[in-house]
Write a sequence for this structure.
């Protein structure tokens, strides 16, 4: 495309970050990224574009065994814009690998994969067939001819080709020689059962190809992935047979120390078993690594799962070879991000198998195992299994290890989410260690993972008691936490303290009395809503009978501040909720309740009730404030006579939230005891609600009869239903001849020992003449809409006092 210079008005560059890897020989990180350059025309349309894959090498000269990996990782991310901050854990793992990589392993590590996992499962070279010859790329045709000879020649040829494949510079030339690749695939397919060394060499060659995405096509063409899984499955079966034979040889030795022949036979078998397992571990290792590289494509990974790759990997966790275990756990970690794979791991009881690896005397293996546990810990059942199999104290013991501390805190946080597991922390050293980490944290903020764990632990009563305890003659844990919280204005520490203050333990609550002044001062002078929220929450939790709430309100002039927060939109809902709860707490005191009522707080709460009627928690706490005020004589009259609070309570009697209904009912019961007018209204509302279905049916039927101009029965008393007066206001509905009543829930002398009609779990005694008129129990009683019981000539219902009232027939 020819383009004049003046036509190119703008140059647009776009950088897209890619994978991060370690340098094969140096202490350096390799950042892969894609650079896209586009020349835009005068109108902004793309005229010419080019895309290029680039690499940036970050050499780390200060890395040694004493380096703080976390701090170094953050420094690298801050200085290199090509690395997104979300890749901090990946950078930490790669630096940790570099820190522990042996210098001798840098030579001959083969190629560097462009889109590799953050973990480096392979450390150093795989053990392969030893051969004295040095391979030459020019002699490939000779090696190819050997692939058509007997097994020893094939094995020699595969070892020589492997030497060439381990040099990335030779891979393209080998790839272009389709005959060599086809011969390797053919020999592997035909002879993999004949020689473990031959299988290892050829699979390793394809593993070298799999390190680069552009070679995945030829691997898929020859179906090497499916063949590799077949090899793994076969080796698993062989391993089971070997173990069975070894167990059989071990039985005669048990308890027969003097049987030298049996002991000699067992030792010989054990030595042979160890040799075979060592070779098999190498084969399995290279097979799994090949599959791991191929699983970059999601469709390929799905095919592997369908062929039970998860079950194979979990079964390999019983092995002892650390390098193989690193690879297996890395693969499981990659698969665990999908729920189907996680479920299959759970079915294979992966947690029990991982228990032996926590802890383990291999830092790389321990680190990747903890990362897998972190992925699994998002599942509640798997967290429970971690506790069941005794992993909790093991995890706590790793908190002292800086390399694993962050991951362990995250796992412990997930475990602490379950209420039944919180109590288990009291049997470990977790709480003292967490307290020490909080108090010794550098800077003005504690790590979020640490604080989240602490906040959860504080929700358990016994944990809270341990946190508040004093060590010897030193200050209490509550004191040092409160001191740090106010020094750095740390709302997370205060949230932890708020959880401590909520427990129903007077001794714990009394410890907070010394800090009421600090908390109240912070409320009045602090501008940070999060910090104020926690301070108010702590005060709201201090339900102490002897506490002088009146002094608190007056000395700090809290009532105007409370009013300012109870206006709709004045603050966030969370803070508003805590202020309402504080009102409920101080209303325990008669004088405080009077002060709040006289200040007009009830009307403010009613207005807030209208504005936040969809927020069940706010509604419930407002009703609780009314409930607290009703208890005091000084405020009872204010609520009943001067506000519409009882009317709102009646409206909420039948709310869908069970807790709101319960608080409403308790409050209305107290109102009904002290005020007869409201007693009748409450009873009427209960009556309406209880009989709403039947009343609606009667009203609809009466309206239909009126429209049709006719009635079902000539003696139908239409006036009782179609006149303008409300049915509940008509006196004949409210009172009737008591002798004509059918008693519900009680047995009168007239009906003793008589049959009882049963419907909807309620028993009603019925006179014998009624039973005769209606054909016994099986009569019309079953045809009357519940909860009303009657027969063709009489209808029974309840009056506002809960008594059954009879009304003349239709």
């Amino acid at each position: 495309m020819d383009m004049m210079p003046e036509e190119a008005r703008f140059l647009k560059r776009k950088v897209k970050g890619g994978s991060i890897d370690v340098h094969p020989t140096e202490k350096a990180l390799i950042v892969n990224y894609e650079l896209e350059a586009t020349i835009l025309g005068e109108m902004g349309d793309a005229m010419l574009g080019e895309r290029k894959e680039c690499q940036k090498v970050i050499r780390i000269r200060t890395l040694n065994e004493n380096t703080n990996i976390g701090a170094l990782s953050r420094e690298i991310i801050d200085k290199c814009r090509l690395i997104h901050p979300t890749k901090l854990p990946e950078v930490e793992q790669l630096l940790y690998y570099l820190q522990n990589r042996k210098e001798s392993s840098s030579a001959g590590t083969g190629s560097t994969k462009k889109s590799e996992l953050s973990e480096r499962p392979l450390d150093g070279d795989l053990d392969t067939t030893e051969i004295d010859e040095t391979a030459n790329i020019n002699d490939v045709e000779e090696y190819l001819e050997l692939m058509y000879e007997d097994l020893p020649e094939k094995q020699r040829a595969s070892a020589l080709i492997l030497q060439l494949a381990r040099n990335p510079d030779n891979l393209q030339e080998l790839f272009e020689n389709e005959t060599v690749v086809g011969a390797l695939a053919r020999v592997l397919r035909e002879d993999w059962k004949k020689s473990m060394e031959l299988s290892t060499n050829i699979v390793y060659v394809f593993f070298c190809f799999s390190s680069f995405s552009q070679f995945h096509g030829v691997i898929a063409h020859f179906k090497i992935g499916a063949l590799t899984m077949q090899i793994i499955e076969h080796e698993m079966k062989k391993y089971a047979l070997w173990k069975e034979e070894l167990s059989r040889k071990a039985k005669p030795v048990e308890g027969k120390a003097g049987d030298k022949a049996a002991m000699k036979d067992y030792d010989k078998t054990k030595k042979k078993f160890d040799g075979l397992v060592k070779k098999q571990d190498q084969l399995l290792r290279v097979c799994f690594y090949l599959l791991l590289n191929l699983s970059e494509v999601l469709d390929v990974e799905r095919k592997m799962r369908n062929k039970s790759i998860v079950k194979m990997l979990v079964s390999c966790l019983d092995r002892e070879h650390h390098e193989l275990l690193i690879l297996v756990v890395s693969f499981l970690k990659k698969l665990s991000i999908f729920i189907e794979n996680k479920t299959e791991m759970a079915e294979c009881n992966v947690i029990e198998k991982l228990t032996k690896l926590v802890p383990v005397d291999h830092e790389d293996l321990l680190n990747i195992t903890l990362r897998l546990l972190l992925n699994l810990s998002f599942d509640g059942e798997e967290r429970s299994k971690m506790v069941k199999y005794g992993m909790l104290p093991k995890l706590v013991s790793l908190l002292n290890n800086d390399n694993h501390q962050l991951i362990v805190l995250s796992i412990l946080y997930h475990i602490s989410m379950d209420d039944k597991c919180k109590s288990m922390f009291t049997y470990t050293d977790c709480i003292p260690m967490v307290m020490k980490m909080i108090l010794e944290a550098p800077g003005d903020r504690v790590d979020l993972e640490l604080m989240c764990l602490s906040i959860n632990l504080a929700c358990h009563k016994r944990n809270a008691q341990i946190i508040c305890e004093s060590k010897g003659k030193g200050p209490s844990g509550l004191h040092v936490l409160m001191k740090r919280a106010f020094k750095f204005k740390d709302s997370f520490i205060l949230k932890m303290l708020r959880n401590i203050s909520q427990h129903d333990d007077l001794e714990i609550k009394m410890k907070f009395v010394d800090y009421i002044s600090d908390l109240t001062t912070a409320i009045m002078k602090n501008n940070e809503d999060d910090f104020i929220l926690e301070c108010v929450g702590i005060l709201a939790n201090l339900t102490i009978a002897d506490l002088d709430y009146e002094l608190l309100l007056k000395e700090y002039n809290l009532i105007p501040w409370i009013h300012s927060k109870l206006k709709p939109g004045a603050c966030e809902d969370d803070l508003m909720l805590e202020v309402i709860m504080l009102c409920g707490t101080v209303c325990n005191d008669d004088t405080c309740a009077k002060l709040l009522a006289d200040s007009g707080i009830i009307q403010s709460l009613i207005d807030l009730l209208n504005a936040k009627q969809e927020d069940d928690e706010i509604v419930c706490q407002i009703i609780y404030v009314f409930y607290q005020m009703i208890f005091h004589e000084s405020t009872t009259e204010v609520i009943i006579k001067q506000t519409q609070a009882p009317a709102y309570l009646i409206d909420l009697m039948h709310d869908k939230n069970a807790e709101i209904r319960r608080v409403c009912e308790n409050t209305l019961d107290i109102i009904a005891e002290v005020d007869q007018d409201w007693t009748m209204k409450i009873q009427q509302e209960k009556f309406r609600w209880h009989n709403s279905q039947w009343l609606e049916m009667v009203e609809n039927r009466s309206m239909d009869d009126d429209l049709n101009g006719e009635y079902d029965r000539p003696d139908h008393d239409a006036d009782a239903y179609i006149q303008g007066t409300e049915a509940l206001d008509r006196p004949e509905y409210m009172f009737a001849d008591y002798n004509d009543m059918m008693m519900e829930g009680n047995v009168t002398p007239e009906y003793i020992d008589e049959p009882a009609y049963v419907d909807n779990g309620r028993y009603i005694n019925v006179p014998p003449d009624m039973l005769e008129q209606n054909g016994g129990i099986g009569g019309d009683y079953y045809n009357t809409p519940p909860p009303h019981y009657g027969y063709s000539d009489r209808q029974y219902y309840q009056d506002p006092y809960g008594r059954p009232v009879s009304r003349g027939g239709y």
Q: What stands out?
A: DSSP finds 42 helices and seven strands in the chain. Residues 1-9, 103-128, 710-810 have pLDDT under 50 and may be disordered. The longest helix spans residues 260-294.
